[in-house]
Amino acid sequence: MTTNSHLYIIAAMSENQVIGLDNRLPWHLPDEWAHFRKVTDGKAFIQGRKSFEAADALHSSYKNVVLSRNQNLEKSEKTERASDLNEGIALLKDENEVFVLGGASVFEQALPLAEKLYLTIVHTTVEGDAYFPKLDWDEWELISSEFHQRDERHKYAFSMNLYVRKES
């Protein structure tokens, strides 16, 4: 598969690797959302159907690819359907940067292909039913980290980290 795209994963997980509960984020972190919007503004997104349909889902104002086997998935002019990750990447082959937004199985499939990992660590342990896949930290180098203290708007402290895949 040839592509000009750079594939990035963007996610937030708790210290026990939870990324969701009942198809929602288990926290509300306004400054982390602002960071997400800044990083992804004007970029194409790939995500699974459940993530796309979640109540707190994030959609690109530019271009979305939803991974679903449902041929009748409701789409808008900025949304296309792909039956799997490879097809989704192929649909976005002319994009410079593509962000993978989840869920768990999509992250797992995209991880070996990703060049960058925008991973926010929420400094707590929470109950969840969706988890970020196990990472081999030896494959990743931390490039930047911005710590955000708990405050009146943020129930938990968190660190917004950027990792790049190490040269093999």
Question: Would you kindly provide a written description of the structure presented here, covering whatever features stand out?
Answer:
It comes from Dyadobacter frigoris. This protein has one domain: Dihydrofolate Reductase, subunit A (3-Layer(aba) Sandwich), CATH 3.40.430. It contains 4 helices and 10 strands, in the order E-E-H-E-H-E-E-H-E-H-E-E-E-E. Helix 2 links the parallel strand 3 (44-48) and strand 4. The protein starts with 5 loop residues before the first strand and ends with a strand. With 168 residues, it is an alpha/beta fold. The model has no long low-confidence stretch (mean pLDDT 93). Strands 5-4-3-6-1-7-10-9 form an 8-stranded mixed sheet. A two-stranded antiparallel ribbon has the order 2-8.
Tertiary shape: globular
Quaternary assembly = single chain
Q: Assess the beta-strand content as a share of residues.
A: 25-35%
Name of the CATH architecture: 3-Layer(aba) Sandwich
Radius of gyration: 15 Å
User: In the CATH hierarchy, what is the superfamily?
Assistant: Dihydrofolate Reductase, subunit A
Q: How many H/I helices?
A: 4
Domain count, please report it. 1
Major sheet strand order: 5-4-3-6-1-7-10-9
Strand element count: 10
Structural class: alpha/beta
Which regions contain 5 or more consecutive residues with pLDDT less than 50? Answer: none
CATH topology descriptor: Dihydrofolate Reductase, subunit A
CATH classification, class level: Alpha Beta
Main β-sheet description: 8 strands, mixed
What is the mean predicted local confidence, pLDDT?
93
Assign a percent range to the helix content: 10-25%
Measured distance between first and last alpha carbons: 20 Å
H/E topology pattern: EEHEHEEHEHEEEE
Domain DHFR: 6-165
EC number: 1.5.1.3
GO molecular function, one term: NADP binding
InterPro entries: DHFR (IPR012259), DHFR-like_dom_sf (IPR024072), DHFR_CS (IPR017925), DHFR_dom (IPR001796)
